[in-house]
Each structure stands twice: as structure tokens, then as C-alpha cells.
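Researcher: Let's walk through a ligand-bound prediction step by step. First, I give you the protein sequence. Second, the SMILES string for zinc ion. Third, you return the three-dimensional complex as C-alpha cells. Ready?
Model: Ready.
Researcher: Here are steps one and two:
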Amino acid sequence: MTAERCPTCGEWVFSKYHRCNPVWLVAIVEGEEQPADDDYSEVRAADEGDAAATGAEEDDSNSAEYSVLKGHGAYVAWVKAAADTKPRRFKVTGEAVPHYYAEEIEE
Ligand SMILES: [Zn+2]
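Model: Step three, the predicted complex:
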């Protein structure tokens, strides 16, 4: 079977036994800040910790500043399963991974 994109979660699926990851509500805030209801966005992930990391990554790339990757500030991901459930909090850290490229120099 060739890979197809799941119409529900957008993941590449190699098996017909695919099950979508659940949707979590994730808010990324700085330090002790309390997120407002509209700070939460939907993230598909296997569990809360994964949702926290994915949410932080998306937040970071949307801000175009890569603030987590730069190591500035202390970020906290608030993750909840539904709008009215108690959030769990995760400390978010990241690291920038260097990439190296090699290109032959023509004589
Ligand atoms: Zn899916």
C-alpha cells in the first residue's frame, strides 16, 4: 500500500489500521502568565507531552523569532484535553540543531 494523507489528521498513513492522534488544546505562555481561552490552539499529538512540544514548535515557527530555540525566556505549555478540563502544564525547552551542507567546488 502506498502512503496516503489521512483526511482527518493530515498525517502520512502507511497502514489501513491508522488511528488519528487525539486533539489537544495547547497554549504557550511565558513564565507565570495565565493563558486566556483564545490563546489555546488545537494540536494533534499522541499524548499531552507530545502536544506541548508540538504546540511550542508551531508557536515558535509562527512567531518567526524562534524564541524558544534561541533559549530566551522560560515557556510553559498548557495542555488540556477539552475546553472545560483542568490543564496540565509542561516546561518547554528547545535547541537549535545545526545543519551542515557540502557542495563540491568546481575547479
Ligand atoms: Zn489520521
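Researcher: And what stands out?
Model: The radius of gyration is 17 Å. The first strand starts at residue 4 and ends at 5.
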